[in-house]
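Field reference: "sequence" (input) and "structure" (output). Example, Glycerol transporter:
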Amino acid sequence: MTPFMGELLGTMLLILFGDGVCAGVSLNKSKAQNSGWIVIAMGWGLALAIAIFVVGRISGAHLNPAFTIGLAMAGQFPWEKVPSYIAAQFIGAFLGACLVWLQYLPHWKATEDTGAKLGTFATGPAIRSPFANLISEVLATFILFVCILAIGANKFTDGLNPFVVGFLLVGVGLSFGGTTGYAMNPARDLGPRIAHAVLPLGKKGSSDWGYAWIPIVGPLVGGSLGTLFYYAVFGS
């Protein structure tokens, strides 16, 4: 398998499990409906761990354009590979969202809340304040990336590292996710948001494109700053 396919498959799995738990918690007549934020945070953490287990040895499991660009800016990843990685991540995120739509096929019509439908696919602010929302995404991504790189610098029993990274994401979600839904990944938000726009979901309302730039710009800024900070302070 090529690194391109590794990133595509890994990001698809990340979204399939991550948006899948959002669908289970949010959509009407799901057996997991209203099970809460802790379930969502745990679901996303396990989603990341699973994706890393599956494709880490193939592509390094970036699964996030902000991480790929941050590593390239820090001189830890070749720039010539950045476009193919980012393309794979966005394609994988879109396909993962489409599979979530298929898995919950009868639940879209059973759900009248258009916000719940959009929230299954993409992030949104608890309180709409563009500057504050942007800062939330920058800070959450900064902390996530510094901690991921620090975890990677430690020696663990074989196979444990992805679980530690997954639990890191659980912690970030619980501590920082309540403001914007903690996208921290342009592909994670934009790919599924496009899926929301094009898939038949019954009455679905707006895809909220006016907000869509925040989960793109925030993670790119926070991820780049976090990666550069880590290598400047801790070294390679």
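The first helix runs from residue 3 to 26.
The mean pLDDT is 95.
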